[in-house]
Design goal:
Number of helices: 5
Largest sheet: none
Strand content: under 5%
Length: about 110
């Protein structure tokens, strides 16, 4: 399958820039989407939709790429927030010890 995608991309890249129509942008977006390059795929699908706004196939591909991209961004943010809230690193331990020392000194101990 990966070889077929590479073949398709090679054929698409051979099309002169001045001959690239909405179908070309849709097909190139499809290749990029299959490779997992969601941002680039979205840009190509958007261009296809701009060139042929009434094409439901292009619009569906754009929606799918945007939904997939949003899901990836949500998952990454969730993972980041989990690391920030649930993790205990050296800085957290050091800050805890400093607070404990301050509390002991305030209470008269050392």
């Amino acid at each position: 399958m990966a070889g077929r995608i590479a073949d398709a991309e090679q054929i698409l890249n051979g099309v002169p820039v001045e001959s690239r129509n909405a179908e070309w942008y849709f097909l190139k977006g499809t290749v990029l989407y299959r490779r997992g390059w969601l941002e680039e795929a979205k840009e190509h699908f958007t261009r296809a939709c701009q060139m042929d706004p009434g094409n439901p196939e292009y619009q569906a591909a754009l929606n799918q790429a945007m939904n997939q991209r949003s899901g990836v961004l949500r998952r990454l943010q969730s993972e980041y927030e989990h690391e920030q809230c649930g993790g205990c690193n050296a800085c957290d331990i050091c800050n805890g010890l400093i607070c404990a020392d301050c509390c002991c000194e305030c209470m008269g101990g050392d």
